[in-house]
Amino acid sequence: MDPVESFIEPHTALGESPLWRASDQTLHYLDVLNNTIHILDLSSTSYARRKIQCPEPVASMNFCRQGGYILCTFTGVVKLGEDGTWTELVKVIPSEQQASVRLNDSAVDPLGRLWFGSIDKCLDESDLARPVVPTGYKPAGCLYRYDPDDTLHVQEDGGIVCSNGIGWTADQTTMFHTDSYRQLVWAYDFDQTTGEVANRRVHVDRSGQQGEPDGLIVDSEGNVFTFIWDASLVEKYDRGGRLLQTWTLNAPSVTHGAWVGQEMQDIIVTTAMKNTGECSDEGGGLFRLENVTLGRGVEKTYWGEL
């Protein structure tokens, strides 16, 4: 294991959903528990940081092609301008389900469509030993696709406990999707023209290991990098799902990562404070992993018509 120290001190209770914008060398990321978007300038060593305050919790975010962000709140999809303009696009979780289900991680596919999933809070927050799902119980978590023409598509109607990291191979033929509770990363055949997925199979199975897979990114060689909550780890898996390398961070709750830099070979990693509020070690800080791929990171696509 390669130990890694933070390069930005702890400042987020629950850091998540980092995005790199090469045009101005800024990193954008969430503090979910404080309803805040941080914007960090990486063009100089001063690392100037500014914030956008959101009116409600945001689970994940992506860039919009027209500018600003497309967000998944706990209940729906919102467009946010960098000036703070807040526009609700679609409500996904009805009021009667909001106590037991919420939205979580998201990503934009190569043709500009937003994919996101939900969490079955009743099971995810239960005392059951993970990844146990009671016999006969169908988890309420779903997988969705929201298109730029304002249409919402249910790709998986139930069966997911804690939907998390989503990503695509560089050739756009395979999509990955995480269920943190089940300790699985699935792979799907992906049709980029129709936006449909098929042939779901297990790509990574972490059953019996400490921690849970959270966010996910992919490099140009088809390697999957997954960020392990409650284990202080970043793990790299090859195209066949074989573990290639791990990095240990001085933070117990590792959440997500973003490709950064001119060659897109470094990753900046977000983390959370211990017990979502107490500063422990360097939890809540940002970490940088350098030269972690021989290829390039698969760049994030912006939401909207191409």
Automatic annotation (TrEMBL):
Q: Which residues form the SMP-30/Gluconolactonase/LRE-like region domain?
A: 14-272
Q: Which parts form a coiled-coil structure per UniProt?
A: none
Residue positions binding a divalent metal cation: 16, 164, 214
Q: Which co-factor is required? A: Zn(2+)
GO molecular function annotation: calcium ion binding; gluconolactonase activity
Cofactor details (free text): Binds 1 divalent metal cation per subunit.
**What keywords does the record list, in alphabetical order?**
Metal-binding, Zinc
Tell me which residues bind substrate.
102, 104
**Where are the active-site residues found?**
214 (proton donor/acceptor)
User: What Pfam families does the record tag this protein with?
Assistant: SGL (PF08450)
Gene3D superfamilies, sorted: TolB, C-terminal domain
**UniProt entry tagged with the keyword Zinc:** yes
Q: Which SUPFAM superfamilies match?
A: Calcium-dependent phosphotriesterase
- Domain of life here? Eukaryota
Any keyword Metal-binding? yes
Record's family?
A: Belongs to the SMP-30/CGR1 family.
In Swiss-Prot or TrEMBL terms, this protein is called SMP-30/Gluconolactonase/LRE-like region domain-containing protein
The protein's organism comes out as Penicilliopsis zonata CBS 506.65
